[in-house]
Amino acid sequence: MIQNSEIILHQNIRDNLKNEAKPFVKWAGGKSQLLDELAERLPINIKTSRTIEKYVEPFVGGGAFFFFLKNNYKVKEAFLYDINKELIIGYKVIQKDVKELICRLKDIEREYLDLNEADRKDYYYKVRDMYNKQQDNFDYNTYNNEWIERAAYLIFLNKTCFNGLFRQNKSGKFNVPFGRYKNPTICDEKNLLSVNEALEDTYVFA
Q1: For domain 4-83+199-205, which architecture applies?
Q2: What's the chain's Rg over C-alpha atoms?
Q3: Closest CA to 72 of 110, 132, 20, 114
């Protein structure tokens, strides 16, 4: 349960945002390195008006170009799609329950960073096992509180696994090994709040 002091803290952070949202997970095929080239190819009327009436992204992934547009243009309506249901859960939870997600990630971050490397490795594999077991009976169709925990696991694993990969085996289980990062940022609160703001007037679909 979120305490009043935490709500005030979230609001203070939100008040200082400059709409500089960026991908909340590292994702294969990300467009972060191509933003300048993509921006040059925008239609002249968009560059002039700084307004996009409707934006459709069929393979959103980490969303680098979407966030770039939201940071720099007025996007009146956006539709984000991706075949990866786990990724879409992350977007929907940030959109609907970002404060609860931040609190859960802060708990995980505190627990994880207090451990030595051997215990961190053990912690990582325990979370990975829980994430994979949860998949067997998970309701991907109806939004509920379990989505918050699953989104938190997704972000934790992405921030602490080897090279920030998202990879599944033939059974659909996440199988990326542990990554040895000294001080990973598991809960990027400011960015999560920025992403939440960027997702206003946005529809997200798997």
Answers
A1: 3-Layer(aba) Sandwich (3.40)
A2: 18
A3: 20
Q: Collect all residues with Cβ–Cβ distance below 8 Å to 191 and sequence separation of at least 6.
A: 21, 22, 24
Which ranges in the chain belong to alpha helices (H)? 4-15, 35-40, 44-49, 64-72, 85-113, 117-135, 146-160, 189-198
Which sign does the torsion angle of CA 175, 119, 99, 76 carry?
A: negative
**Cα 165 to Cα 30, 47, 140, 177, 179, distances in angstroms:** 12, 34, 22, 9, 10
User: What pLDDT digit, counting tens, does each position of 172-204 carry?
Assistant: 999 999 999 999 999 999 999 999 999 999 999
- Whether the CA torsion 85, 91, 96, 99 is positive or negative: it is positive
CATH number of 98-189: 1.10.1020.10
Q: Closest Cα partner for 204 from 190, 196, 8?
A: 196
| Model confidence pLDDT, tens digit, residues 19-72 | 699 999 999 988 999 999 999 999 999 999 999 999 999 999 999 999 999 999
Q: What does pTM read for this prediction?
A: 0.90
3-state secondary structure of 50: coil
DSSP tag of 63: -
Domain map (residue ranges) of the chain: 4-83+199-205, 98-189
